[in-house]
């Protein structure tokens, strides 16, 4: 599981940039869909 802070950051970033690929701190790319 990822830390809550990362989840919150991804969630907030997804609100600003929906359906865009995000880069996590470890370099892994994740697609977020609403």
SSE map:
Elements: H1 4-16, E1 21-23, E2 29-31
Antiparallel strand pairs: 1-2
Textual characterization of the structure:
38% of the residues lie in helices and 18% in strands. The chain is α+β, with helices and mostly antiparallel strands. It has one domain (1-34). It has a two-stranded antiparallel ribbon with strand order 1-2. It is flat, with a radius of gyration of 9 Å.
Features of the shown structure:
34 residues; alpha+beta; 38% helix; flat
Number of DSSP E strands: 2
Counting structural domains, the number is 1
For the termini, the CA-CA separation is 19 Å
Structural class by secondary-structure content: alpha+beta
Mean pLDDT: 66
Uncertain ranges = none
> What is the rounded Rg?
9 Å
Task: Please summarize the sheet with the most strands.
Answer: 2 strands, antiparallel
Large-scale geometry = flat
| Count of helix runs | 1
- Which percent range fits the helix content? 25-40%
Strand order within the widest beta sheet: 1-2
Order of helices and strands: HEE
- Strand fraction equals 15-25%
Oligomer: single chain
Quick recap of the structure?
This protein has 34 residues and is of the alpha+beta class. It has one domain. The protein is built from one helix and two strands.
């Amino acid at each position: 599981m990822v830390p809550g802070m990362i989840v919150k950051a991804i969630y907030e970033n997804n609100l600003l940039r929906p359906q865009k690929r995000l880069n996590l701190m470890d370099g892994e790319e994740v697609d977020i869909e609403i």
